[in-house]
Amino acid sequence: MIYLDSAATAPVRRESLEAAWPYLTGTFGNPSSHHPVGEAAAAGLEDARARAAAVLGVRRSDIVFTSGGTEAANLALKGLALAAPRGKHLVTAATEHEAVLECIDFLHRVHGFDVDLVEVAPDGGVSPEALRAVLREDTTLISLALANNEIGTVHDIRALAAIAHSVGALLHTDAVQAAGHVELRDLGVDALTLSGHKLGAPKGSGLAMIRGRHPLEPLVHGGGQEGGRRSGTENVAFAVALAVALELAEAERLDSAPRLGALRDLLVRRVLAAREGVLLTGVDIDRPGARLPGHASFCVPGRSGESVVLDLAERGVISSSGSACAAGSDEPSHVLLALGIPREIAQTAVRFTLGRGITVAEVEQAATLICEVLASPR
Ligand SMILES: Cc1ncc(COP(=O)(O)O)c(C=O)c1O
Q1: The pTM is what?
Q2: Residues with Cβ < 8 Å from 119, sequence gap 6 or more?
């Protein structure tokens, strides 16, 4: 099998699992217990927090461990918006992940926030001018991903955060796809959210980095764990697993990003040449920093994306016809529609995302099989 769906999920790394194991067995204590068994677990949790904070270049107290990227985005967006002392205006982009869009919709429907969607360029980018155009004096919170999960477009979040701050608004970035591929430090954001399972930690692990100076309304009330920001007995093992996976991904990033980028370029060139009319969605590969290194996303007019994915799976190549979260529905991707791609073309989307362990030989073999499938008339 050649796995080209790393943006959906990745296998758990041995180092991550081994670091977590003691907290599931010998050091099993409840971190809130005031005895040596509990204190050993609390020490493991705080060490994980310190390590995650070091990767992000933030304070330990800014980190809240969660059950994944979705919960982390819910905490950051609802928590900051509901506690915000100013304004009732939210800004996001139609290309964001559902984890963001649904929170914004909830805040609009249930709490009466006004929402504006920033204009997105056909390659998925958001320009400073486009953001400035929707900001108001009372803008509360802006949410823009560091990188898009379907097309891999990377935003210049540092510049966008500076614009947000110029009107006194906060900026949250969904860094689920960017982590391990893009610099996460010094972005100047107020909140950043991550998922463990894209990085080699187990599914159900994640974190929200929310600057401690900002008031936050918790979503889960109870015993006041995580500094009162997320109650419930902490999942120490998964926090440790996430911190280790994040550290490793960051340590390997400078080597892996150019390596994956070169393999992605090879794949993109082969796929574009495979069939007339194939188009690369997102940013051109000649702008390397503006596209995630492992992301190659296409529309293949004349073929249904779902059928390409199935034909490839029969040949042992695992890909995706859009985001895994939207998979199973025949609806074309909301991201591609937001880029202005017509419905019938958006329905032909196929995404290949390269993971850490992928080899040149695997990419070449996959490219050959993709070309074979695309050349067939079905
Ligand atoms: C950009 C983005 N945000 C959020 C999520 C949700 O993360 P999780 O699966 O950990 O809930 C995903 C998952 O695919 C994603 O790609």
Answers
A1: 0.97
A2: 126, 127, 130, 133, 134
Q: How far is CA 161 from CA 81, 100, 167, 172, 211, in A?
A: 16, 17, 10, 9, 14
**Coil, strand or helix at 3:** strand
Pocket around ligand 1: residues whose beta carbon is below 6 Å from it?
68-70, 97, 99, 145, 149, 174, 176-177, 195, 197, 206, 325
325 noted as active-site residue: yes
pLDDT interval class at 86 (50, 70, 90)? confident
Q: How far is the CA of 292 from the centre of ligand 1 (A)?
A: 15
CA–CA distance, 374 with 378 (Å, rounded to integer)? 9
Domain with CATH 3.90.1150.10 in the chain: 2-6+253-375
Q: State residue 72 phi and psi, 5-degree precision.
A: -60, -40
pLDDT in tens, 197-213: 999 999 999 999 999 89
Fold of 14-248: Aspartate Aminotransferase; domain 2 (3.40.640)
- Whose tokens are 């050091």? That residue is 27
What totals of helices (H) and strands (E) does the chain contain, helices first? 11, 12
Query: Which of 67, 101, 325 has the most ligand 1 atoms within 8 A of CB, as the residue to mutate?
Result: 325
Indicate where the chain has its CATH 3.40.640.10 domain(s): 14-248
Q: Give the whole-angstrom CA distance, residue 378 versus residue 368.
A: 17
325 has pLDDT over 50: no
Q: What is the DSSP string of 232-299?
A: S---HHHHHHHHHHHHHHHHHHHHHHHHHHHHHHHHHHHHHHHSTT-EE-SS-TTSGGGB-TTEEEEE
- Overall CATH class of domain 2-6+253-375: alpha beta
Q: What pLDDT digit, counting tens, does each position of 160-209 carry?
A: 999 999 999 999 999 999 999 999 999 999 999 999 999 999 999 999 99
